[in-house]
Amino acid sequence: QLKLEDYKDRLKKGEALNQDQLEAVEKYDEVVHNLEFAKELQKTFSGLSQDLLKAQKKAQRRESLLKLEAEKKKLRTILKVQYVLQNFTQEHVQKDFKGGVNGAIYLPSKELDYLIRFAKLTCPERNENL
Fold this sequence. Notes:
The chain is mainly α. It has helices at residues 2-12, 19-26, 28-87, 91-99, 109-122.
């Protein structure tokens, strides 16, 4: 653009320009227009790029939150199952299931023994002093 402006100034001062330089001066407005268009296009692409980066970050945050919620849900389920299984290790709970009383369903001794053994294998002992 600077070169074209120099040609334009030289032409105004009355200097003789060769054919290529004259053609370049004639296309000065077109070149300036194309440069302005290119700048606007670059701004648009830059804005789109920023929007895309923001959208990607937002999607990553959302995905992280969904994963965290899924992990929390799994942990809650595990803790609920452990709580239920630990109750089978208490004598009064075992009596209720052996007799089918106090809202407990009847469980044969063999099935109850399986649950008790499973509870002891899967549920860590709690230290009440901690």
